[in-house]
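To: structure subgroup
Subject: Chain for Friday's discussion

All,

I'm putting the inputs and outputs inline so they're searchable in the archive.
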Amino acid sequence: MVRGLQPQALVTLTLTTHNDASQKFLSYAHYVSDDSGTVEVERSEAVGGSYTGVFPAGLLLSLMEFPHNYTRLQKEDPTTPWLMTLAVHEGHLTLEQSAISEGLTDALLERHIMTPGVRREPVVHERVRGNIFFPAGPGPYPAVIDIFGGFGGLKEYRASMLASKGFACLAIAYFNYGDLPKVLETLDLEYFEEAVEYILQQPGVIPDRCGIISSSKGANPGLGMGIYLPKVTAVVSIGGKLIGDTPLTFRGQQLWKTLKLDHSYFHIGEHNIVTLKESAVKNLYTHDHPGLPPCENAPDDTHFLLIAGDDDRCLTKLEIEAMMHRMKLHGRERQCQAVIYNGAGHIIEPPYNTHADYSIYNMGFTKIITKWGGTPWGTCKAQEDNWYNMKKFLEMHVRDRSAWYQQYLERTRAEKP
């Protein structure tokens, strides 16, 4: 809230932050103060800038690299707060003007994504590489493994946020990290099996069930874990490429076909931004495609939550539709839930992370600018709803339906005086 302005004053609000590589990100919005000289973003309407309308989280969702260079804003180190400067400027300024304006006043904000007491420990176990996060307190905690997509490396912010909500969460890398392969030729399901066994052996962790959260490229091995690893009882896919482009093997056998799309399936638009042609792929993604994982073969106690945006320019909603059709044909539709969010694109992050409409994507042999889709407002609503639904889904199928956990509750109740 901004107070002390003249009535009907024209002001520009800006939010500035830097990523862990010190690159600058900036958003701005034009407001008109009310009769009391106040601007309150929860009820005041932005009339221009990075967004318009009443959008309380608009400055967060609209942050973009400045000068613009297609970099996606992500928090690499979850142990440090995100430092952001909120400033008030006189008049309705352009983005460039607001970047150099000293402003009327400003405030430094700290956004913590890991609550006090959460423990972060490095993991170098057999082949598994990553970091594990434990909630504050003694447990028992439901176990979750977090798998990101085709950027490779290790992303920890989602795992740290889940640990802040009571989950023991192992963020794993599977290529382009440490001594792991720089470029993927194949994916080995045994690697992910080792991760499951590792987290379930940790003190304070519910030992008989494990959940998976996977994004984009990570969805293909994530589904494989749900199908072939009995202790994996809940799989969340967010913008998941269900039909993978990298062979997935288990016990020396390739589990299903892959699908590699050549340049004819893509459109190169203005500023060399690449999008997938829906007309070219809509007939590829069918329920009987040999690369679609056979989720109907998963154990009866394993459930899948498939999430996508209706404006996902990677068209993962088409793959979800094919999977739902397949599950229905096999009478297993109760094990698979789909949620398609209006106005969201390929990237659906935890709440109030910046909307990425497009960004640089490293394909190993080259870098391209990929269109991800969605709008800041639609993305924000999807983030809020998905975060709540995903947590409830994991709590139900990893914690509440655990025989070990129910026995623990019975013992605890019996021990009370």
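Points worth raising on Friday:
The two ends are 50 Å apart (CA to CA).
The chain has a mean pLDDT of 95.

D.
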